[in-house]
Amino acid sequence: MGKLSRKVAIVGAGMSKFGQWWPIKQNRDLWQDALISAMNSVDQNFDMNDVEELFLGNFTADLFNHESHLAPLMAQIAGLNPKPATRFESACASSGLALRHAVISIASGMTDLVLVGGIETMTEVPTVDVTDALASASDTRLEYPAGATFPGLYAAVATAHMHEYGTKDEDLFNVAIKNYENGAQNPFAQVQMTIEQVMEDKLRKAEKRGKPTPKWKGGTPYDFLRSSSNPYIAYPLRLFDCSLVTDGAAALFLASEDVAKKYTDTPIWITGTGQGSATLQLADRKSLTSFGATKAAAETAFQMSGLGPKDIQIAEVHDCFTIAEVVALEDLGFYEKGKAVVGIREGETKRDGKLPINTSGGLKTKGHPVGTTGAAQAVEIFKQMRGRAERNRQVKFDVECALTHNLGGSGATCVIHTYEK
Amino acid sequence: MSEEKEITLRNYFDFLAKDKLMGSKCKKCGEVFVPPKKICNKCQSTELEWIEFSGKGTLATYSLIHVGARYFSAQGYRMGKPYCFGVIKLEEGPRVSAHVVGPSKEWEFDPANFKVGMPLKKKIIKVEIEGREPSFDLGFEPV
Ligand SMILES: [Zn+2]
Asked: Chain A within 8 Å of B70 (Cβ-Cβ)?
């Protein structure tokens, strides 16, 4: 089993505001926003000339933007040419993978300071093309003719989970409600409203347009989420179970233990990195209610860091769909199989719970520019561990140990990192 | 007949168009694969032969997809008129992805018609979309 032969730290991290930016902002604009945010987060002595290499995660600017040779371009924007610049692709785990390879580069002694990026602009193409582009990360020869979509595959996991463990609609609603609550506290999130605020907003708009009053008026978020205002996208998953279509970028500066202290007195050490794979086709997997790639990546990352699930105090997990957060909490070992929904129901994963999950709002409300997500998860952990999360989002205890879980496609790739002070 | 054909994905689909669900079987350890493979992932043998699957199975999991891929919206499915994407466990062991259909298109719209574990049988679906060659897709229907 692998070990990091040299310590690696995050010394700066930032992101663009996530949202639907096309055509006002494009890949290179969002990248500059993320770079500025990351540069400003470095405490002292930052100099772009010290950066030796760019590791860039991007799923498919090819299909979304007709741009494929992205890494040298983004190195150009950062002023890094002629230094090495490489693009990493593993669907929604693309920048998690870029981060992992940056860690490996520094640990190996090849580099001392590198830039990790994530970038995706999805809204340049119509929604049906976004659906098709995302579906291209599944086993297209076999799953596409069967009708699989990205939500459809996770919906099939949800059906199996409901069948096996009795998971209910409300259990998934609880995940969404919590992540809206968190997103409302994140100035970089695509949606900065609680579910209650979403309801008020919809009521106001309905009244303005002279539309009939929705039945859920005066009701609870559950009444709203069970109504036709929350239509099925892929039964049993509804609109509010799905993450968003998002444009955004994120950037991180990673340093070796030899130079980290030059840039900050409070580096965040990446102590474990793990990656796993699984069959591309969902049908070929042994389990339909668990992701083998997550389990493999977690085992490697935990073994490397010497940590276990019980040591982790906060985590950003890959909630591309509400069911994915439930399954992640089980696969990562935070809960027994079928028991995560109980912990979620009891508030354990809220900001003030004992294991805050997705304080950023997650992919659900922060947004999911697919190739950016892995890097953006690390941005949130960097802020939380240094006590600098904006608004009312900072957890109330000192975070010593954290984890990010970044899943690619319908779970065929997983990249996990552990972080310590 | 089938023995002469090379084990390729193209030939698997050609068989489907002739109403045959074909895979391969390892001559050494008996493991079966669908679509067929030339390499056995269980024992690393490269001695595999074509076999035909019975086409009988059960519904392992499913989703009724309202916002479909372009290929399915071209078949008339849309919001409120979903199609069923299914994972089917074949009686020979492996699972496959397939479109699950019923006696009518409307039958697919109602979740009450679907149950994990329900028995299904193969039904090859001929899909004709304007401007495309007709294709023959793997489908299943209730027994
Ligand atoms: Zn064999």
From this structure: yes
